[in-house]
Amino acid sequence: MDVEYLIFEIVMLLMLAKILEIPFRKYSLHPMAGHVITGIVLGPYFLGLVKPSGEMLGIAYFGLLLLMFYTGLTTDYRELKRRSKTVLLMGGMGVLVTFTLIYLAMCLLGYEGLPGIFIAASLSNTATETMAAIVAKKGDTISRSLLVGASFVDDVMAVFIIGILAGLAVENSLSITTLVILTSKALFFLSLIFFISSLLVNKYPKIYKTISQDYFWFATFSILLSLSLAVAAKLFGLSELIGAYLAGILISRGREFHDPMLRTRIAITEFISDFTVVLDALFIPLFFAYIGLSYSPGAVSFSLYLVLLSLAILGKFVGTAPIAYISLKDKRRSIAVGLAMSGRGALETALLKLGLDYGIISPMLFNTAITVSLTTTVIAPILYSIVYKK
């Protein structure tokens, strides 16, 4: 492909993506849906102006790595500590119930094995960015803490699942032995990074202070760390995405130790702010527009869509609303929290694209599950607002 035409395609995708995201931002919805629609409109299914080329895939996948790094950067463990037991229980039960319901339905419909597991895992997560947008304009302190905290737990579990499923795809095997080995690898990798981050915060905070003295070198070090851990995870037999995510965790925990000059905290805050601009302006729109290029509305199974959408909402509600009631002591707000937890977002969509590229799921399953994810992204804030309102 000519470089000039590639740049022309990028310009078209970015211009339309930014135009279509305006109504979504206006109503505090994730603009991801607008970006995906951009790819659908300009892609092979409609206008045919942009095709999912290898060059565009490379740009999109690099954007995905940066998105995972950003997810780790914005993970705040202080939210988890405030209501750790309730938050962990909410996040865990929401994933468990939703995964179980969807996987059983997939088995009954003839999609047992790795495809069924992958779809169930992809639709079991709750998007932190969607929860943050929901509680930004409506919600009490406790509800906000529960929603954001539980979605953080979901993100950590989703990254863990990504590492295992990507390994299964590479091995092309679903044997118990392979599953145990990959699970052990993922647990070891996660535990190692969490141990190192705790060691840095509690024993060697001077390392954070040293690298944050110069903002330019801090930003450079952070980006190189994300790419290095991505490569390390790949060499370890896991997905690159889990390495990029854990690099964000390592950097973000620099805010936890006591720093009278606040130098490290200021550097991290400025870096996240600048990094957000780059992601929002370039890489996130291009990644989700690329997903739109691969999306075909005609390949969606409407009956499967209705089943998955119903279970995606029901599983989260059943798994989280009763636990939320323990802290809230309010039936209406507990129901609102349970409905809000059905919101999906970037991480789930990225996981589905990964499954398609690895050949784990078929184009029909991909298109149907993407439609479910986009639908919940839009309707979760609406359901929450309706129920929460007195």
Question: Secondary structure elements and their pairing?
Answer:
Elements: H1 3-26, H2 32-42, H3 54-73, H4 77-82, H5 84-108, H6 114-122, H7 128-137, H8 141-171, H9 176-202, H10 206-211, H11 215-235, H12 240-252, H13 263-294, H14 302-328, H15 331-340, H16 346-357, H17 363-388
Helix pairs in contact: 1-2, 1-13, 2-13, 3-12, 3-13, 5-6, 5-8, 5-14, 6-8, 7-8, 7-17, 8-9, 8-12, 8-16, 9-12, 11-12, 14-15, 14-17, 15-17, 16-17
Detailed description of the structure:
The protein has a single domain (3-127, 148-356, 365-388), classed as Up-down Bundle (Na+/H+ antiporter like fold), CATH 1.20.1530.20. It is built from 17 helices and no strands. It has helices spanning 3-26, 32-42, 54-73, 77-82, 84-108, 114-122, 128-137, 141-171, 176-202, 206-211, 215-235, 240-252, 263-294, 302-328, 331-340, 346-357, 363-388. It starts with a helix and ends with a helix.
Comma- or semicolon-separated keywords:
390 residues; mainly alpha; Na+/H+ antiporter like fold; 17 helices
In short:
This protein is an all-alpha fold and 390 residues long.
Shape: globular
Count of β-strands: 0
Low-confidence stretches: none
Helix count? 17
